[in-house]
C-alpha cells in the first residue's frame, strides 16, 4: 500500500494551516505533497500541470470564500477522472455534501476540517478517492440518519440498531471489510446486514461498491428533498 | 253698530241663526257699499264733473272697500274684517250722500244747501271717521281689552251730535277757535292711532308674558301706528286750513292727498297683518302672491289717485303745457315712492329675500362649516328655501365612510315635488337636492341658475369633506405606521443588542475559557516532556479539547449566520434547518424555487422567520408535525408554517418570538399574519417582497465559460 507514495496537491488559503498540513503529511511519509496552493485557480493550474493522484482542498477559498473548493472538485473530476478530491470543510452541513455529489460520488470525499487531527481518517479518505470511491464525514452521516429515523413511519425506523450502524458506515463510504473491522463483525454478517438494509429501504441491491454511497445518499437526500 | 262686541275667534261658536243673520248683514253692507261706490263715481265724474272724484275714490274709498271685502271673505267672523268692510262701505255711502246733495243743489240752482242736508253730510263723514277710529283703536284682534276703551269709543258717538248742536248754538263753521269741533274727522283718525299706541303699550305691560305672536304683531304695529299718527296729525292740520280757506287752493290738494292716507295705511296694515300675524284669527289659505297682489293693487290705486290729483291741481293754476309737464313730473316723482312701497309690501309678504349674488355670498360663508356635513345639509336647505322662496327643500349628502346619507330639510314637506337637482362631482354622485313648489309662482331661469351655482358650491364642499376624510384616514394610517415603526425599530435594536451580548457571553465564557484551558494542557504536555510523564495522553487531551472548541465555534458561527444560506440559498438552508428539528417537518417547496436566489435581505429575513417559527412550534405548540410551505407568488415569497399543535385562543400581537418575527418581516416591507385557534394549530403566514438576485459567478462558471 505504501510502496509508492501518493502524489497530492493541497489547496488552502490560510497559510499557517496549509504549511502545517503539508508538514504533517510529509512527515508521516505516506503521501508526497507535490504542490500547496492558496486559491482554486492555482489548484486547477497545479492539477493540470502536475496530474496528481489526489487533491486535498479547502471548501472556501479566494476570491469569493464560498464553495470554490466544490466547484474545483467538479472541474478536476471532469478534466482528470483519475484524480480523487478530498474536500475539507468547516461546514457540518449535508447541503454541501449533496452539492459536492450532485454529479456523482466517485472519487470524492467530504470531510470536516478538524479531521486533519485524525491523520488516519484523512489518509484513508485520500486513498479511497484515489481508488475512485467516496467518503462522507461520519458527523454528516449522523445528521442525515438522525433526521430520517425521527419520523415514526420512516423506513429507517424499521432497521435494527445493528443495521443502522452498518448503514452509517456504508454512507461514510466504507467497504464491507472496513465495516466488519469497525464493528468487529464477520464479513459475511456485514454482507447480510447490508442486504437487509437495501431490502428494508426498498433500494435495488447495489453490488458495485462505487455506487453504494451514491444510492444510500440518494435515498437519504430524496426522501427528504422538497416535495415536487 | 250691528256688530259691536262681535265674537272674537277664540270664543264659542254662535248659534246658527245669529251666524246666518250676520252673513246676511255682511252681504248687505258689501252690496250697498259697492252700489254706492259705483253711483258716486258716476255722479262725481259725469254729473258734477268734480275733478277730484276719481282720485278720492281710487286713492282711499276703493282700496279700503276692496281690503274689507278681502278680509271678510277670508275671515267672516273677525270683527276687524267686518269693521274694515264697514269703513269702506261707509266711505262710499258718505261720498254718495255728498254727491247727491251737490247734485240736488245743482239741479235746484241753489248756492247754499239746506242746513239739514249739510248736517247729514257732516254726520255721515263723522260716522266714517268714528268707524275708522274703532277699527284702528281695537287692532289687532278687534276686541276690547281694557275697560277704558269701551268707554272712550262709545263716547265718540257723542261727536255725531256736534253738526246739530253747534249751528243751534250759533257757532259759525269758520269760527276760528271752534273749527276743531266742526271737523272732527280731521283729527279723529289721529285719535284712533293714539288709542292704539296706548293699547299696545298697556298690553305689553299688562300681560306678563304675552304670546310671542301678539308681541311681534303689537311691536310691528306700534311702529306703523306711530308713523301713521304723524301723517294723521299733518292731515288734520291741512284739513283745518282747508276749513278756513274753503274747497279751493293748494291746501285742498294737500288735504286730499293726506286725507287718503289713513284709509290706505289702515287697509294695508290690516291685509298684511291678516296674512302675517293672523290678526283675523284664521290662517288665510291663499298664496303669498295673492296677498302681494292685493297690496300692490291698493298701492297702485293710491298712486294713480295722487298722480291724477297733482295733474288736475296743476291744470287749475298753470297754463296747459306747463300743467302737462307738472303732471308728468309728478308721475315721475311718485314713481320712486310707489316702487319703494311696492318693495316694502313685497318684503312684508315674502320676507326678506336675498338676491342671487347675496345668496351665493351668504352660502360662501356657510361653507366655513363645510367640514361638518350634518350642519351643511340643513343650512344649504334653508338658504335655498329662503333664497328661492321654495315651499320646502330637502338635501341629502353622501357622507364618507358611512352608508346613510346626511339629511337636511327646510320647511315641512307638503305638496308635490317640484324638482330635484343631483350633486355631481365628475361621475360621482355626492348627493341630491329636492324641492317643493315655489311660493307664488314658477321657478325662473335665474332661480335655476342660483340653484345650480349653490349646488356646485355644495358639491365642492362635500367633495372636500370626502377628500378630507380620506386624508385623515391616510394620515392616521401613516401615524400608526410611524408609531409601529418606531416600536419595531426599538425592538429590533434591542434584539440585536441581546444577540450581541449572547454571542459575547459564548465567546468569553465558552471559547475563551476552553482556549485558556488548552493553554494549560499544552503547558502540562511540555512539563511532562521535560520531567517525564505521559506526554501522549496529555496531547490527546489537547486534541480532544480542540475538537470541542472547533465544534463550539462552528455552532456559534452557525447561530450568527448559517453559511449554507449565503452559499446555497434559502431552500437548502431551510431544508437543513428542518432536518435538525426533532420533529418531522413536511417541506412543500414550489418546483423551481430551489435554485432561485433572492436578495440577501430577503433570504435572511425568510430564513430567520422560518427558524423562529420552527423554534416556536418546538417550544410552545406541542405539535406532532409541521408543514413548511415555500412558494413564489408573482414577486412575493410566501412562507407558511403550520402545525397541528394545540393552538391558542388569542394571538398576542407582541410577545417575544412573534413580535420579533413581525418586526423582521415588516422591516423588509413584508406582511405577517398569524391564525390560531384552540385545538386547531397555528398557521404563520408571511409574504416578502422577493427580488431575484444574480447568482455570483463561481469558479465553476469561470472555468466552464
TrEMBL record, chain A:
The modification 4-aspartylphosphate is found at residue 58. Transmembrane segments: none annotated. Residues 7-128 form the Response regulatory domain. Residues 152-217 form the HTH luxR-type domain. CDD domains: LuxR_C_like, REC_NarL-like. Keywords: DNA-binding, Phosphoprotein, Transcription, Transcription regulation. InterPro entries: CheY-like_superfamily (IPR011006), NreC/VraR/RcsB-like_REC (IPR058245), Sig_transdc_resp-reg_C-effctor (IPR016032), Sig_transdc_resp-reg_receiver (IPR001789), Tscrpt_reg_LuxR_C (IPR000792), WalR-like (IPR039420). Pfam families: GerE (PF00196), Response_reg (PF00072). It comes from the Bacteria. The keyword Phosphoprotein applies. SMART domains: HTH_LUXR, REC. The keyword Phosphoprotein applies. This is Response regulator transcription factor. The lineage of its organism: Bacteria, Bacillati, Actinomycetota, Actinomycetes, Kitasatosporales.
